[in-house]
Design goal:
Layout (H helix, E strand, L loop, with lengths): L1 H34 L4 H4 L8 E5 L2 E5 L22 H19 L5 H24 L7 H19 L5 H21 L13 H21 L1 H26 L4 H9 L6 H7 L5 H18 L1
Antiparallel strand pairs: 1-2
Helix pairs in contact: 1-11, 3-8, 4-5, 4-6, 6-7, 6-8, 7-8, 8-11
InterPro entries: TM7S3/TM198-like_dom
Subcellular location: Membrane
GO cellular component, one term: membrane
Length: about 300
């Protein structure tokens, strides 16, 4: 009788797990199909109260609403390079080198895990700051990648110290939540909420996931740590696979579209937008499913 009860419980748990994964994949595919019905113009809209966009004779010009002067536009460099350039390969190696152990090994080597967590947080935070503060001239992909990865190295070394243990655990929990939120937002063309007037909703979703991750790691530390490792690791591995398959047109483009609200990059953001290939959506959905499976 007891054996039968345990077997039924196990089957119910497995059914729930794989039903959730299947539903997630189905929703992601339907989202892309529905998004394909939206006009390109709608996908590429950008709300930015700091600029005025004028589209005359097919030429997009950006002006400051305060001074009325034209804002020079530059290439939105994010350090990802192009195709399989040196910097692109560096990011692929970085994604698998950091993401693989987090996903497969988890919290067993806690010093290395917390070092990776703090380093990753430092890298992504600094990357977002650079992308949003560079002027129209910008800096080279090599320089940006070097600076960001150097900050990762400093964060990693800091995370190895005993005094960083508590902070590292909290950072890992937050990273795990944010990684889930970002992937959910990137599942659809033009982001989860593509309406330019509701762009902030995407960040509300991401922020809620990050907050949930921090609460989980404080409330139930073991589950929170497992979630942080699985989510952050699967996110980085997904980024690595997507860079190999889609280069800069998949997750890389989505991350730039999500984070980059630099007034010097408005034309690039408006004209290129974000419309992920089906392979990117599949990679995102599978990585979310793997997060759930590895966490449990």
């Amino acid at each position: 009788m007891a054996v039968g009860f345990r077997l039924a419980r196990l089957l119910d748990h497995s059914f729930l797990r794989y039903s959730t994964c299947a539903a997630l994949g189905s929703w992601a595919v339907r989202s892309v199909s529905a998004a394909s019905l939206i006009s390109v113009q709608d996908l590429h809209r950008l709300q930015d109260p700091n600029v005025i966009i004028s589209n005359n004779n097919g030429t997009i010009t950006v002006y400051s609403p305060l001074t009325g002067q034209e804002i020079p536009q530059g290439i939105a460099s994010d350090g990802s390079g192009s195709s399989f350039s040196t910097t692109a390969i560096v990011w692929i190696v970085f994604a698998f080198t950091v993401g693989g152990p987090l996903l497969l090994v988890g919290f067993r080597g806690w010093r290395l895990t917390l070092g990776a967590a703090i380093g990753t947080a430092a890298a992504f935070a600094s990357w977002a700051v650079f992308v949003n503060t560079l002027d129209n001239v910008g800096i080279s992909d090599v320089a940006l990648t070097t600076v960001v990865l150097s900050l990762f190295g400093l964060g990693f070394l800091l995370g190895l110290l005993e005094l960083s243990r508590v902070a590292g655990i909290l950072v890992l929990g937050i990273l795990g939540g944010l990684a889930i939120g970002v992937r959910i937002v990137l599942l659809r063309s033009g982001l989860l909420v593509s309406d330019s007037t509701a762009y902030f909703v995407n960040w509300l979703v991401i922020g809620f996931c990050g907050l949930a991750g921090s609460i989980l790691v404080v409330w139930k530390q073991r589950i929170g740590l497992l979630n942080g490792c699985a989510s952050t690791g699967s996110f980085l591995c997904a980024l690595g696979f997507d860079l190999v398959i889609n280069q800069q047109s998949g997750m890389s483009r989505g991350l730039r579209f999500l984070f980059d609200r630099n007034r010097y990059h408005v034309v690039d953001t408006v004209t290129n937008g974000y419309s992920p290939p089906m392979t990117t959506v599949i990679i995102l959905a599978v990585s979310l499913a793997i997060t759930y499976v590895r966490r449990n």
